[in-house]
């Protein structure tokens, strides 16, 4: 016996009506009923963040919500990014940042990271490194070691700050503002504040994962399945 219920979601600005079973997870409704497969499923248990979307502007893990619970909500997925005013019909500054700063390797976590980054910059256009790391703390990446993801979001913050306010951007960066000096902000690798919790997972002040030959050891236990701090990775992150 099916017990389907009608729900309405406004997804990336378009209202869609669906018939879903009460047990249907929002992520499955998005991927299978709406055919928007940009939102990924990594764990289905709320651990990885690959399924992160924005619900009424707030980042949520769509594998932890029934579709019926989202009835009447505005949902944004990665597919909606190009339609935002700040994208100007092309890549969103966040997407551009991930490209320019090598913020992805396999890309599995990326849609969730982009949504988490979008939620952060909507609320805080000028985040420091610790705030970025906090914002993405519910999103796991098995490839990058996170440093380039942080740089990608910093890149997007700078790009958005440089856009005219009428174009969806924010005020220009004041010389000497925290955005202007993000690269030297406390918690930035290699900064002057010494080792902090916002720095490397191993507590060192300097991100020591990458070498100059294209491979790196991330230094994070179990990252990418590596059993030890000597796990070798060979991403495009030199
Ligand atoms: S698939 Fe939702 S948190 Fe992993
Ligand atoms: S790029 Fe993040 S999991 Fe592969």
From TrEMBL:
A Pfam family per the record: Fer2
Domain 2Fe-2S ferredoxin-type positions: 5-81
GO MF, one annotated term: metal ion binding
Region: Disordered, residue numbers: 166-212
Keyword presence, Metal-binding: yes
Listed Acidic residues bias regions: 199-211
Comp. bias (Low complexity): 185-198
Keywords from the UniProt entry: 2Fe-2S, Iron, Iron-sulfur, Metal-binding, Oxidoreductase
UniProt-recorded name of the protein: (2Fe-2S)-binding protein
């Amino acid at each position: 016996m099916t017990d389907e219920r009608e729900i309405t979601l406004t997804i990336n600005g378009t209202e869609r009506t669906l018939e879903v079973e009460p047990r249907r997870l929002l992520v499955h409704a998005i991927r299978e009923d709406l055919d928007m497969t940009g939102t990924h499923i990594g764990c289905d248990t709320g651990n990885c963040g690959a399924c992160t979307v924005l619900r009424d502007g707030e980042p949520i893990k769509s594998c932890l919500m029934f579709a019926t619970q989202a009835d009447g909500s505005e949902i944004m997925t990665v597919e909606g990014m190009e339609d935002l005013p700040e994208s100007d019909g092309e890549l969103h500054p966040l997407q551009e940042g991930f490209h320019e700063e090598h913020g992805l390797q396999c890309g599995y976590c990326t849609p969730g990271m982009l949504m988490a980054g979008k939620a952060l910059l909507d609320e805080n256009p000028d985040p420091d490194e610790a705030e970025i790391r906090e914002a993405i703390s519910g999103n796991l990446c098995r490839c990058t070691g996170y440093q380039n993801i942080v740089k990608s979001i910093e890149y997007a913050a700078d790009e958005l700050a440089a856009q005219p306010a009428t174009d969806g951007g924010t005020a220009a960066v004041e010389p000497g503002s925290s955005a202007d000096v993000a690269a030297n902000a406390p918690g930035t690798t290699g900064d002057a504040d010494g080792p902090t919790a916002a720095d490397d997972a191993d507590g060192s002040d300097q991100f020591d994962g990458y070498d100059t030959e294209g491979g790196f050891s991330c230094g994070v236990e179990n990252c990418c399945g590596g059993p030890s701090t000597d796990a070798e990775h060979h991403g495009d992150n030199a």
